[in-house]
Amino acid sequence: MTLATNVTKKYTKKDGSQSEQKYHRTTRTLGTKINDKGLVVPNKVEFYGSSKKEAAEKARQGVEQWKNGITENKSFRDVADYFVYQVFMNNDKYADRTKSKYIDKYNNIIRVSAIAGKKIRGISSQDWQDLYNASTSSYSTLRATNNILRLIYAYIEIERVGDDITHNLVVPKNETNYKPQSAENEIIIWDTDELLKITNNLNKQRYRFLVMIAIYTGCRIGEILALKYSDISIKKQEIYITKQVILKPIFQNNKKVGTELTITNRLKTIQSKRKISLHNVLIEEYKIHKMWHEAEMKKK
User: Which of 42, 55, 155, 197 could cross-link with 83 by S-S, CB 3.0 to 4.6 Å?
Assistant: First the structure.
């Protein structure tokens, strides 16, 4: 809360002359809003009065009206819908793939449950735990469901319309929904001889350079597909990772209807934006690939 006195407001009288009047002002934070940059920030509202008492009373009434406006005759689903579709979807903190996964779990597990139709303060943590325990979904699905549920309740608590009751929820892990990694899906790491067999069989293949980048830098496939010649400096012997290709989900009426390939400057983590030293092998591969590419362009 911020309280200020002697706030001066200027106004024009009917006769056109200028005048001013002093007010008392108090500020309250009423939930959150999305600013021009798409970030979720506190929603600060100012209330004025001819005295400190009047300003404080108007602020009290404003807070009550705001609380009633959010909670009156609204279910958990109503408030969660607003957060998921208006706040979470517009938050650049999360990658599009994460948004797609979480929204899918919200729509198919949380939103359709009987619990979502209840008033916020009429729901207990046991209600959600019972939902998890009775679910036949996989462990990874329930874990993603729990993640979006926690985000929803964090929003509810910030908005002061309910308490966060997700702290003690446990995602069940049992023989039905959780299978340890087996020999079939175990990650296999190729040794040097195996890598040589692969690269030797890629001679004159148009994708050879991309494979070589993956081998010598460890870059993700999306990062490699987004590379341009301008991202590689032969003079400095460096490669710059600043973007990636992703499958961006397409939503219609708050439902995922498909995906599209797009290039984004938002990488997996802050540390993902980096420069990598070029191995001598990659420098030679770059020269060969560029010569091939220029020759192909001339044919067209």
Answer: 155
